């Protein structure tokens, strides 16, 4: 039986760390990277007698997320205790939400694949709930003992649970990327995956095509990059198919992905699963969210990627592909919008080409985020404007761009002036250059006259070279044809 | 001075008849003399007390003293006290010096109260006899072969034996009112949410409430006024203005000061189960109340009998989770020898907790387990709502509810050691009040045939503390049960 007889079913649980200044139930700082245990208050280390107080900033972010995905934001939700013992869980329970989460339902539209094969799909969300993070156990450097760092204990998390709507690792990654972009877009999470601000668990099962029941799932824990997410799912899917085809059965389990081997391995089976003994936390009142609060959050909501994408297409005439690419992240969208606003809406399309083309490639090469681009939106807009008014050619524009990148001028105009890159449009000057080129390249002239079209291009190239690239290629073409009597 | 009321102590301090340092020394010396027998204190903080007393004397000299400045007090060892051992009656915290003050402790410190030390208690406030303390049983000052009640037994015994004029306590199922009754003093548990639980080591969070002990309702009113108030660090703390519970007490005495007060007598509290001598004392007290102008009316609390089973699901469920933090990792007792992590947990907890605490943790873990949660925990929450509704219905017909605080007087030390359920049943009259979150007060109304005190419980609607204290105060103005002192004192 081949791979194509199987259907893959994937649901994701994402833990997004909310970017509040202080923890979800204490006033301690959430900043990353401090010395161990210096950001752990009496509440975080669970001294006897301490009590949690809910951070309203965390709630506000959960509301923003719920509204952004068109979900139901619960008027009343309840914090529950998830009880288990672990040294980096100071209270012996995690405060989370169980029966009544703060966000219910909602959906995210994703774009999967590239080019002709690309398609859109809507992934439904089950819920999103608020909870606190645990601390960290450090198993190295302690001479056989375990070190405990409670700086992270109590950091606010939004656990975002999708329906099992994804059918390939590509869809799972597209969903995770879209979610990642969204939480940064609405500024509830910094999205830093290396620091663990955005962590994915993938529930994966396979079933025969056409089957109506889901297969038994295994949960891959703690995937902290999109690449690992893809690799882990691909490995897991193949493992499940092989196991079933070899006559085995899938046992419900939690597994870990090892990036070194590219394999998943069992962490615990369902039999070993904890009984978390959830019950409502008596230290916290039910979380009540008024319509007024929701309205305030809605009013402060930035334009969302979907709406922005539609606006780029309708108002500025961008293609669906361009509009999707330019709204893939808040930073790119902000940069693009700033560029267009400096260049004028009429130049929206060439601005798009530059942002997605040369700028993106250069940033990629330099491994820089667009927010750190050495070329500012205003500089790029100035460059696009000079191409549009024929001051420079596209080829020269690349030189100007590189000069701006290297800080060799503060504006495109300054670079063009300083380096004398202004396009030569004087017919006489170009004709003089053509005459010189024709005189020096009799062989090409003969070949052209013998019918070799390529020879014409070679001549154009020679003229452009003679002009140091400053002549307008179109003008050179026209004048050369005239001279050759073509 | 030992037997003086708080207003008398105030006058003496303000008139410089005695200094706060002298007063503290007086009580510290009594503790030295009597505590070896009574075991009411786990920790005596002589140095801290004298330092606080010196500071109080300066405030008095500067004319900035408040009602409680310079008054000595005992804190139940459930309250965290900065720099002072805070054990909660357990071996688990036998080495725990708190780095911070409970909200109640800091309020009272700010008021200039002089803390003499930490009062003995049932381990983690679980018990009705003070015998579950790791630091040994407290003896009832009226008869040292008897229990003082629990869990705030050390606080109650200390006030009764005049080792301290007042004391703090906590009440989860009767832990202020029952020991107050057994020791012949006055104790009040206010409405849930009035006293901040911040720094009060949790037993059952939805039921725990700080309370006050004193010889009289007036002393309790003074202490309670200084303990209550909104605390943003406790999410269940009620955001309402603080009240001066002594204000109503100041009205001049009259022949019928309780004219118009309707006292409800729950049929269920006066049925079988109450000892005859308790009944006699309670009935006599009710006659006094009627003489003061109050009327009595029979009311019904039909679900009150379900309070004990509901309580013994909810309280253990919460405690099983609340006590998970005592794992030997960050503070408290850790076993000396262990193998792996699980072994460290089980040995540390097995060694650190006593039998009653383990019993409740196990019960709580069981009732929260998958498959049992609905049948136990959710069902108990339903009963809790029914019980609260009963009280609301009864309080439509009356202003306060009265009855015995306990079915019997204090029993003998060791008498219930092998029968925890029998001990649980002794809290039949007090537990329902915690489930409903209502205020309750116990004051002495006489003695049983064994010479031990009998308490009357008054229960009010939410925030009726002033009404309860005023009723008891009017009673105490015309009776002297509250002024009786044990021979040991």
TrEMBL record, chain A:
GO BP, sorted A to Z: glutaminyl-tRNAGln biosynthesis via transamidation; translation
Listed name of the protein: Aspartyl/glutamyl-tRNA(Asn/Gln) amidotransferase subunit B
Keyword Nucleotide-binding tagged: yes
Pfam families to which the protein is assigned, alphabetical: GatB_N, GatB_Yqey
Keywords: ATP-binding, Ligase, Nucleotide-binding, Protein biosynthesis, Transferase
Enzyme class: ligase
Entry-linked SMART domains: GatB_Yqey
Catalytic reaction list: L-glutamyl-tRNA(Gln) + L-glutamine + ATP + H2O = L-glutaminyl-tRNA(Gln) + L-glutamate + ADP + phosphate + H(+); L-aspartyl-tRNA(Asn) + L-glutamine + ATP + H2O = L-asparaginyl-tRNA(Asn) + L-glutamate + ADP + phosphate + 2 H(+)
Subunit structure and binding partners: Heterotrimer of A, B and C subunits.
Its job: Allows the formation of correctly charged Asn-tRNA(Asn) or Gln-tRNA(Gln) through the transamidation of misacylated Asp-tRNA(Asn) or Glu-tRNA(Gln) in organisms which lack either or both of asparaginyl-tRNA or glutaminyl-tRNA synthetases. The reaction takes place in the presence of glutamine and ATP through an activated phospho-Asp-tRNA(Asn) or phospho-Glu-tRNA(Gln).
Enzyme Commission identifier(s): 6.3.5.-
Gene: gatB
Signal peptide bounds: none
Asn/Gln amidotransferase domain sequence ranges: 334-484
Alphabetical list of HAMAP family matching this protein: GatB
Family affiliation: Belongs to the GatB/GatE family. GatB subfamily.
One Gene Ontology MF term: asparaginyl-tRNA synthase (glutamine-hydrolyzing) activity
UniProtKB/TrEMBL annotation, chain B:
Role according to the record: Allows the formation of correctly charged Gln-tRNA(Gln) through the transamidation of misacylated Glu-tRNA(Gln) in organisms which lack glutaminyl-tRNA synthetase. The reaction takes place in the presence of glutamine and ATP through an activated gamma-phospho-Glu-tRNA(Gln).
Active site, renumbered: 76 (charge relay system), 151 (charge relay system), 175 (acyl-ester intermediate)
Quaternary structure and partners: Heterotrimer of A, B and C subunits.
UniProt keyword terms in alphabetical order: ATP-binding, Ligase, Nucleotide-binding, Protein biosynthesis, Transferase
Biological classification of the source: Bacteria, Pseudomonadati, Pseudomonadota, Betaproteobacteria, Rhodocyclales
GO term, biological process aspect, one: translation
Reaction(s) catalysed by this chain's protein: L-glutamyl-tRNA(Gln) + L-glutamine + ATP + H2O = L-glutaminyl-tRNA(Gln) + L-glutamate + ADP + phosphate + H(+)
Annotated Amidase domain residues: 23-469
Naturally occurring in which organism (per UniProt): Thauera propionica
EC category name: ligase
Single GO term (MF): ATP binding
EC nos: 6.3.5.7
A cellular component annotation (GO) from this entry: glutamyl-tRNA(Gln) amidotransferase complex
Identification of the protein by name: Glutamyl-tRNA(Gln) amidotransferase subunit A
Family stated for the protein in its record: Belongs to the amidase family. GatA subfamily.
Stored Pfam families: Amidase
Source domain of life: Bacteria
